[in-house]
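On clarity, I found the account of how folds are encoded harder to follow than it need be. Since the whole study asks how a given chain folds, the encoding of that fold should be made plain. For illustration, here is how one protein appears when written out as sequence plus structure tokens:
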Amino acid sequence: MKLNILISAIFVNLLALANAHTVLLPARGRRCFFENLNKGDEFSISFQYGDRSLTATEQLDGDFIIYGPRDEIVSELYETQHGEITITAKSSGKYNYCFINERSDIDTKDVTFNIYGIIYVDLDNPETDSLDASVRQLSKLVHEVKNEQSYLVIREKTHRNTAESTNSRVKYWSIFQLVVVVFNSIFQIYYLKRFFEVTSYV
């Protein structure tokens, strides 16, 4: 019974560390957030750029930077559509991470991101054979699956919009062709009727 309570408490604490957010990025702007980390803590973030426009057919991209406690760049990605970064805090303090849209005028660009942090445990160490390490490893795998699903949802939305746009163009092109054929048929009937018309002179 105590073991079940311990497992439940550990799992709830790990879930509390996980957060999923979607934020709208301003045109030519950035959105920044922060986490307070202790030395040796592990901080992971995965993100995916998207478009809130219902008619969007392109996969958008942006920049991502993590700043350390002394405003030094810890990690950076430029012109990326999605990514996943894990850092280990080398010193305690506030770590800022920014999603950047400064090279684009698009005001419907958003970013969906998941963050989770753990107190450092070496999962590859064979001596780390504890329940806590197993739960942390399971939590990490669950987060990886969740992040992959979020990425696939946004990709499916983009591809669906592309397919609907293509279908719409095909429909209007077919209507245009039908109108041209009808007008051509009417013109030919009228022209042939005039051609075979007998004209009598008095």
The chain has one domain: 2-157. The helical segments are 2-17, 131-195. Strands lie at 19-24, 30-37, 42-51, 62-67, 73-80, 82-88, 93-100, 109-118.
